[in-house]
Specification:
The structure is a homodimer of 719-residue chains. The first copy, chain A, has helices spanning 4-10, 23-66, 74-108, 112-149, 159-204, 218-252, 256-260, 262-287, 298-327, 343-368, 373-381, 386-399, 402-431, 435-457, 461-503, 514-554, 566-580, 582-637, 665-708, and strands spanning 331-333, 340-342, 644-649, 655-658. The first copy, chain A, is an all-alpha fold and 719 residues long. The termini of chain A are far apart. In chain A, strands 1-2 form a two-stranded antiparallel sheet. A two-stranded antiparallel sheet of chain A has the order 3-4. Helix content of chain A is 79%, strand content 2%. In chain A, a hairpin with a 6-residue loop joins strand 1 (331-333) and strand 2 (340-342). The first copy, chain A, contains 19 helices and four strands. At the A-B interface, helix 5, helix 12, helix 13, helix 15 and helix 16 of A face helix 5, helix 12, helix 13, helix 15 and helix 16 of B.
């Protein structure tokens, strides 16, 4: 697919030239970075203040409806701890990113290599801090509850004690997930409203590019990258990690041997802990140019990132085996399952998750990187206008589901078969074991995007070409990160679904029964309703933004020399995203509670199964479609689609040349696809992960309540 | 939502003016109609010749793999009868439509009223012939097999005889469905390749509108309406009817009383038969202008059509009750279900289907008609360019799922609860009981579209404005028809799924087991892969078409006075659609067979459940999105989006006016949405119905084979 002519167009060697940054430019860059930081901080503070109120109210709901023993409030406390930890994680991530962006710009002025290293290092800090924090709090909770709930005399300990204790711990995952949901949706609406708004500003104000300093939406756009793609994504994956650990614990509560054995108790934590060590080792390969990471052209960035995934996977394969042998007893069994589970079976489950995560990453890269056929064909189809681009892009997203879904199905089958729902939870932990690297490559994207924005606004042209290369790779890495997030979210939700079934004593969820099948159909519909709501939210917010830009244009604020009112645009994006994040959020939170309260756990089981299977498909296809459209645009901008020389001659006797570069109709068609893809890949797509996980963990926490109520179902029909 | 200003714009009173058609124009019209007929015939003959070969081969597969008793071939024979009946149905429908199109043009020259009546009458003929034929053949088969399989002595009759007999009859549905699948996909690719190709022709040849006589793709476009939307759709709904009757019979095979009672045996047929009578009565209301159907403006067309649905539903409500009381025994029971089923319960199930079909129709109309808010908002969003239009359109499609899916879920729950899977089959029959009307309003659309094409090519401008109104209503009616088709397909597939479970002795399909959950995930992915394949097929075929048009332009064939090579375009569309219809078709047919052969019936059950829940959502959203985009474009063309008068003055001191009419940027944005929607609403969306039904009936017919093979699953794990 990659011929030499294309190579030259899109993938030139990095020049040795250094762009000089004088003091004035430096001051401007720092000022811009400061504005971005302040905007992001202001948004997060406002968003978190809403969330804190929501969490207090939701805590009351948990207290009255979901606490197993009346008057106790440990689930509520764990829930609030989870929420606060998630908030802190998002905030730390954002602070790192807003500091790293200007540094990346500076280094990119020197070389692509140095720019990459700074951006990647910043992403890694984010990854290590988040995972470390999640594990630390989880470990403290596990030790504290162990001391609190278990009788002093070890002989009195039964697995019932554990069961009770683990249900409290599930609150931790719930807290993390609720914050993640609002973070993703609120941040996603913010970032895409600003992005789409400034993209389309050119429609109302002629000749106003997206990242131009005269575009008043540009600072909001850069703020959005930080609050949506960094803080939101951090909270999302923090939630995944917390929830998969919770799921493993709750399920292991039904295995007497697993819970009494101290090693086995800490096994899920140890997988993640070892993952951190493995990622630190891996990380050295990316940051030492003299070792294996020479970044001289665009394609090198993707190679290094793929290398990072591969190396961490290779280190983890034997590493997890050692952890398993040390921590787990040779064989154990679960209540309700006849077969004995061996230590090796558990290892196989974890490995399945790890490998299928790697495969999902590779496939995602294939469909979203402009190094391969799919994106290049998409770019070619732009020649025929926006409609063929949109048609082909949607088809690309749909077909890109196939391999990841098969990977997941195989993982589910094997780990289910080997260790039932515990196996699924382990597979999720396996997939998340190199989460630090996943977060690093995911965080690297928005940092480069920001660096590019700062370069453009400071008129550093050479630097901008370098940041563009980093950013194009960032689209792919973001898609890979999302692929991981979706895959792990699927496994985590399924494990939580299993935990929910265990808790509600459902041994069978029979889709040949009316309640379950109706639930399945309704559940599969929820991701569609959710996507529609978030997309509409982005549309509405972007329109408000465009109107504001048009207003400022009328006032003459956008002329050369005048200062546009950036703050007003930030305010509009903030307001719109905060008011728009609640309806879809409430849909996700209320659906399982209302359905469970009216129709009982069986209906909820149907809804969960439906929502999970439907959300996976939509999430994969949305994030891949969006990534592919964005990169098709970048590919055209980099000159990947060659000008056509026609046989016909013009008046001067020269052959007519049809140009496909920036500004041509072809490029406009590509921009249309990119704009459509924006809300898909950065708002609704990634929020769908959280939809599955959150619905599952809410069902788990409220399971007991559903059994007690189920108002519309004759009690006899319950198991 | 509808203010007076809008009314005036889009919904003017029909003028009394009659457009004169001179002999020359008449001859041209007849010539055009003849070309369309010949093109359609040629395509269908070619398509059917492929299908006949396929059906013979597939008959052999059935013979060797699926016949329960070795050496017997009754399933094969019934299968071939189903296939042939389906082919005949499609052909008759197409012949009616290609004769009616020019008549509609002629009548539209006189008045909107007369044009509507001709088009609707033609649609009705299609409806009555199709349903009548399906019932006739079904009745003959049922009588023949009863005579053949049942012992002479009534005392020797057991329900096992019936069970065996019904399984043969299932072949009838399978034959109908396989033809329907290829008809829908082949016809859908044909019609959309031609449509998208001629839409985009303007991109390569400046100023060449879609329906212009100089556009060589225009005849192919009109042929496509007949082969895709008439023949394909007819075969689709013929299949639904045949399959729902089969499903009711197979399920009733497990009820001793139901099968031995002659009335009960013919009950499913009688519902459909009474439906024909009810539709004949209803039909009079639409065709008698003096009674209640005065069509003077655009909105009247939709009112009459809604009226038709309402009247037929109102007649059927008491009618079906009478049929039920006459035909069914007061109570009966099923094997494996404890509860007794009463006659009244069966009536409720049928009623549920009928009413939920009506509701789905109404909701679909709301989302796709330009009389209501959603489409008007979509049209307004076109002002901001193609991307906002695509974003809002996708969101519209997703949200339009909600009510239909809830209707279906409630119907499933109630009918499941009242009469188990038999109830679901009855609900499907209830929804299809006014199928004649459904087919009439569905067939009416492409006929008007063709009439409009002929009017445009014959330069009848007043007539064209009238056919445009009919056609705009036709987009809505097509969406309503598709809504019915999807809803009934969901119920039919579920009933067949139940029949499959009965046949394979699966009493439980537990999604908490690995095989079933993995199947569920894979099954939910199949509609995505299928959609991607069909969309890509349309894209590829449309590109071939555009290249051909460009080639003819170079040769000077498209200049005023020259005759473009229509036949070449027809040939290209035919070739492309026939070669592109096999891969997605094989995917649907092979998936259940391969999975069943390797992993057994349990995995197939999971795949079926996943495919059904996922396909419903995609089918609803795709057909509604496409209909809404098409009508948003029509709304803009009719002047629904008012020109904006700005405060700014131009050089002459006049206020600057931004125009949104045909040819403006706003209209171009709308055309982009329409083009994207074309393959969604006419190729992949409607083919998804058949995907669900076909996968379910294949599983049913091959169920026995799956039990015998299941190579990769230890036999002990099977129930």
């Amino acid at each position: 697919m990659i011929d030499d002519a294309d190579k030259k167009g899109s993938d030139k060697l990095d020049s040795k030239q250094v762009e000089h940054i004088n003091e004035e430019k430096m001051a401007l860059m720092l000022k811009l970075s400061g504005m971005i930081r302040d905007g992001a901080k202001a948004f997060l503070f406002k968003e978190y203040s809403y969330m804190i109120v929501f969490c207090i109210l939701f805590g009351l709901i948990i207290f009255f409806l979901a606490e197993t023993q009346m008057g106790e409030c440990w689930t509520v406390i764990t829930f609030e701890i989870g929420a606060v930890t998630s908030i802190i994680s998002g905030y730390i991530g954002m602070m790192i990113a807003v500091t790293a962006n200007v540094k990346t710009t500076k280094e990119c002025a020197i070389s692509l290599q140095r720019g990459f290293i700074v951006a990647y290092k910043a992403g890694s800090v984010l990854g290590f801090v988040l995972v470390g924090l999640a594990l630390l709090v989880m470990a403290i909770l596990m030790i504290a509850y162990r001391l609190m709930y278990l009788p002093q005399n070890p002989e009195e300990v039964t697995w019932l004690h554990y069961q009770l204790m683990f249900e409290k711990i599930a609150g931790y995952g719930l807290g993390g997930s609720i914050i993640a949901l609002f973070g993703r949706v609120g941040g996603g609406v913010y970032t895409k409203a600003a992005d789409v708004g400034s993209d389309l500003a050119g429609k109302v104000v002629k000749g106003l590019p997206e990242d131009d300093i005269r575009n008043p939406g540009t600072i909001a756009d850069n703020v959005g990258d930080n609050v949506g793609d960094i803080a939101g994504m951090g909270a999302d994956l923090f939630g995944s990690l917390a929830e998969s650990t919770c799921a493993a614990l709750v399920v292991s509560g039904t295995s007497p041997l697993l819970v009494i054995n101290t090693g086995a108790y800490y096994y899920p934590l140890c997988i993640s802990a070892f993952g951190i060590l493995a990622c630190i080792a891996t990380w050295f390969f990316a940051t030492q140019p003299e070792m294996c990471c020479r970044i001289q052209r665009f394609s090198d960035v993707e190679k290094v990132i793929k290398g990072q995934l591969l190396i961490s996977t290779l280190i983890l394969i034997p590493g997890i085996y050692i952890v398993t042998v040390i921590m787990l007893p040779p064989t154990f069994s679960f209540d309700g399952i006849e077969q004995e589970v061996t230590r090796n079976a558990c290892y196989v489950c974890t490995l399945c998750g790890l490998i299928s995560g790697f495969l999902i990453g590779i496939v995602t890269e294939y469909y979203t990187s402009n190094e391969y056929g799919p994106v290049r064909e998409l770019a070619e189809s732009c020649k025929k206008g926006p409609a063929p681009n949109v048609i082909k892009g949607l088809a690309l997203g749909y077909i890109s589901n196939v391999v990841p879904v098969i990977c997941l199905a195989v993982t589910i089958y094997i780990s289910f078969k080997f260790a039932d729902m515990y196996g699924i939870a382990l597979a999720a932990l396996g997939m998340l074991s190199n989460l630090c690297i996943g977060l690093a490559i995911d965080g690297y994207g928005p940092i480069s995007d920001n660096a590019g924005g700062i370069a453009e606004m400071s008129h550093l042209h050479l630097t901008r070409t370098r940041t563009d290369k980093l950013d194009a790779a960032g689209n792919t890495t973001a898609a890979i990160g999302k692929g991981f997030a979706i895959g792990s979210a699927c496994l985590v939700s399924l494990a939580l679904f299993g935990a929910f079934a265990t808790r509600c004593h459902l041994t069978v969820v029979n889709v040949l029964e009316p309640l379950q099948f109706s639930g399945l159909v309704i559940g599969a519909m929820l991701p569609y309703a959710f996507t529609a709501m978030t997309m509409k939210a982005v549309g509405t917010a972007a329109e408000a933004m465009i109107e504001e830009i048009a207003r400022q244009d009328k006032l003459g604020l956008l002329k050369e020399g005048a200062t546009p009112d950036y703050a007003k645009c930030i305010e509009i994006a903030t307001k719109a995203s905060l008011s728009e994040m609640f309806p879809p959020g409430i849909l996700v939170i209320a659906s399982p509670i209302v359905i469970g309260c009216l129709f009982g756990p069986k209906a909820v089981a149907g809804v969960l199964a439906g929502a999970i299977v439907s959300a996976i498909q939509m999430a994969f296809s949305q994030s891949n479609t969006g990534g592919a459209w964005d990169n098709a645009k970048k590919y055209i901008e980099a000159g990947g689609v060659k000008p056509e020389i026609l046989d016909e001659k013009d008046e001067e006797g020269q052959n007519i040349v049809i140009n496909h570069a920036k500004g041509s109709d072809t490029h406009k068609a590509a921009v249309c696809g990119d704009t459509v893809g924006d809300p898909l890949k950065d708002t609704s797509g990634p929020a769908l992960n959280i939809l599955m996980k959150l619905m599952a963990i809410i069902s788990l926490v409220f399971g007991d309540f559903f059994i007690r109520t189920a108002y519309l179902i004759p009690k006899t029909s319950e198991v």
